[in-house]
Amino acid sequence: MKTRHFFWRLILYRPGLYLLNLLAWSLIHMAPLVPGLLTKAFFDHLEGTYTFPYGVWAIAVLLIGAALARIALIYGGFMTDVHFRFRISTLLRRNMLSHVMKEPGARAIPCSPGEAISNFRDDVDQAEEATSWSVDTLGLIGFVMVASWILISIDLQLTILVFVPLILVVTAAQIATARIQKYRAASRESTAKVTGAISEMFANVQAIQVAGAEKRVVDRFVSLSEKRRQSMVKDKLLTETLSSIFTNSVNLGTGLILVLASFKMRNGDFTVGDLSLFVYYLTFVTQLISNVGNFMTYYKQMAVSFQRIKTMLQGAPASLLTAANYIGIGRVKGKRRSHGEETGSRVAERDPEAVGMMENSAISMAEDGVERTYIQAPPLSILEVRGLSYQYPETGRGISDIDFTLKRGSFTVVTGMIGSGKTTLVRTLLGLLPAEAGEIRWNGEKVAEPADFFIPPQSAYTAQIPRLYSDKLRNNILLGISEQPGSLDRALYAAVMEDDMKHLEYGLETMVGPRGVKLSGGQAQRTAAARMLVRDAQLYVFDDLSSALDVETERKLWERLFRDRDGATCLVVSHRKAALHHADHIIVLNGGVIEAEGTAEQLLRSSESFRQLWYGEETG
Ligand SMILES: Nc1ncnc2c1ncn2[C@@H]1O[C@H](COP(=O)(O)OP(=O)(O)OP(=O)(O)O)[C@@H](O)[C@H]1O
Predict the structure, then answer these.
(1) Angle between helices 272-312 and 156-203 (to 10 degrees)
(2) Measured between alpha carbons, how far is 236 from 244 in angstroms, rounded to an integer?
(3) How far, in Å, CA of 26 to CA of 44, rounded?
(4) Which site from 10, 396, 459, 537 is most exposed, i.e. has the minimal number of CB atoms within 10 Å?
């Protein structure tokens, strides 16, 4: 998609509102035609070359009326502009966010969080600005056309002099266009880097202190800021230079008009009223010139922002950005889709085989009027994984050709040395990383979109590094689902948190995270486990939950899980004996492939890697 298509599609999101905005600003910019003519009449009346039928005071009253009418128009114009701008930028941000949410979770954004924030904030603002400025330009062109016609009918020569600066400015801006793009891209890039560095610094204060790396971190920040300063100065300098060209060329035009008019007035060809009209209109022509310049600059800057926003899509079509979607204002438009229509077609497009399973999908309508699709598959009896592969583009490492089967109620442990691919395996299975090859079958039916499918009630997952929010413990566990009687207590018990709860003064109401109580690594992991266990699921996936749990706590956790959740199927990444002992089946990974599998007993006899892991734990 080209920038102009993007621009056009943004306008088409709310064409009615855009036209209203265009009309409002056209009237605002054309309104000065009236006081210009009234001023001419005023001076001509005083000079005696023309007689206004209702006298000078009537002209004064009309001038005040025109000013008041313009004030009212400007008020209306701001209302339409704000409504249009807000909708455009909200739509863009909504569509970007929706895409980020659909990307495989572990690769949701292709850049640092700081850069993503800059894309969401600055680049969207740029697109909003360019679309909004377009109405001024069109309105002012309307003014210039009518004004030119009036001025030409008074004096052709002088009229041309008014427009010469305009031609100069447009040419200058065109020449500078390529440079603006380059400097703007560099300044946006350097700003994103500085924002990224700040967010990394705040996130890693402890690591920086422990490593005694304060000076190096500050030096890096200073060097990034210096680069930003240089690119910003270049960007601003060029923008301001252009703006000064816009203004000064008009001043030059005014001077020329004055010199020329003085000759004409001496000859009696030109009245004081004519001069006032020329000078009055010229002010608004100045506005047109700077507006055209601004619009061109904003448009070019939008082209840069558009490219940056597109990278967020990671190859998805850019038309997603401008797709007409509900943005939370007004009522949801159009017919509500029936149950199978959305999920059925969405899945059918990708894989006709998978449609059967999706017959069990359900759509719920939340209070905000947004439809959300939940897939409800039949209870798990067997999960088959065949040929699953994923390689990180950056390192070429990952997993390849992974086969395994999980039966209902089984406890399977994935183990292996550091970097052997355990996390990659579970993330690819769950759709958090996009599988490059292989298939997953749930009760024999192919799972078309693992990311949409492996969520409650099918599966629940605890990542290796738990992510908690600055919120109450209760909200961190529930994370949006409604509490059922006893559900939180059961989850806390299963996650072996009962002792921790006794020590937290405010219990479930305790604020945790950066703005509250700092939980220990083990507590954070158990909170994440409780978050998983409060959601009843068929398949529980734990990624190295045990790394921050002591042996006794971990033993209790597995015991409770088995006792209270009969039939739950578990896939657990671990190298701990507590988990390996429980396992019906163990998969040993090495270099991203399955090196051996079997029970602990079998593997102790057959696998050297497994023996190292097993005995390594005793010595380690
Ligand atoms: N985001 C990433 N980008 C590039 N390479 C990665 C990325 N994450 C992991 N890798 C590489 O992929 C391989 C498998 O990593 P993975 O995290 O799956 O191993 P693991 O067995 O879970 O390790 P650990 O026991 O430390 O958790 C490693 O060689 C690692 O360096």
Answers:
(1) 30
(2) 12
(3) 28
(4) 396
Task: Quote the pLDDT of residue 356.
Answer: 41
Nearest CA to ligand 1 atom 24: 418
> Three-state SS across 515-540?
CCECCCHHHHHHHHHHHHHCCCCCEE
Residues 317 and 408 reside in one and the same domain: no
Per-residue pLDDT at 348 exceeds 60: no
Q: Is the pLDDT of residue 73 over 80?
A: yes
Same domain membership, residue 503 and residue 370: no
- What CATH code is carried by the domain that includes residue 462? 3.40.50.300
Judge if 453 and 524 occupy the same domain: yes
Running DSSP on this structure, what letter comes out for residue 14? S
Token digits for 416?
């292996």
DSSP-derived 3-state class of residue 79: helix
- Interior CA angle at 584 toward 539 and 413, to 5°? 60
Residues near 421 by Cβ (< 8 Å), separated by ≥ 6? 397, 398, 399, 589, 591, 592, 593
Of all protein residues, the one whose alpha carbon is nearest to atom 3 of ligand 1 is: 392
pLDDT digits (tens, 9 = 90+) for 330-342: 766 544 443 333 3
For residue 387, report the distance from its CA to the centre of ligand 1, in Å. 19
Radius of gyration of the chain (CA): 34
Mutation pick for ligand 1 pocket among 417, 422, 573, 594 (CB with most ligand atoms within 8 Å): 422
Q: Which domain holds residue 573?
A: 382-619
pLDDT at residue 180, rounded to an integer: 77
Backbone angles phi, psi at 194, to 5 degrees: -65, -45
Q: Which residues, other chains included, contact 117 with Cβ-Cβ below 8 Å and sequence gap of 6+?
A: 195, 199
- Does the beta carbon of 465 lie inside 6 Å of ligand 1? no
The answer to whether residues 457 and 376 touch, using CB atoms and an 8 Å cutoff, is: yes
pTM score, whole prediction: 0.71
Q: Is the CB of 431 under 6 A from ligand 1?
A: no
Chain center to CA of 443:
37
Interface predicted TM-score (ipTM) over 0.95: yes
Q: Which atom of ligand 1 is nearest to the CA of 573?
A: 22
- The Cα–Cα gap between 292 and 130 comes to 11
Name the domain count of the chain. 3
On whether both 53 and 139 belong to a single domain, the answer is yes
Q: Assign 344 a pLDDT band (cuts: 50, 70, 90).
A: very low
For the residues 291-298, what does the mean pLDDT come to? 78
Residue 388 shares a structural domain with residue 361: no
Task: Give residue 43's pLDDT.
Answer: 92
Structure tokens at 596: 């051996």
Omega cis (within 30) before 113: no
Q: Can you give the pLDDT at residue 258?
A: 84
Number of other CB atoms surrounding residue 394 within 10 Å: 6
251 has which bridge partners? none
In the numeric block, which tokens belong to residue 13? 């999101």
**Beta-carbon neighbour count of residue 22 at 10 Å?**
20
Q: Is the CB of 419 under 6 A from ligand 1?
A: yes
What pLDDT is recorded for position 246? 67
Say yes or no to pLDDT of 359 above 70.
no
Cβ proximity of 413 and 587 under 8 Å: yes
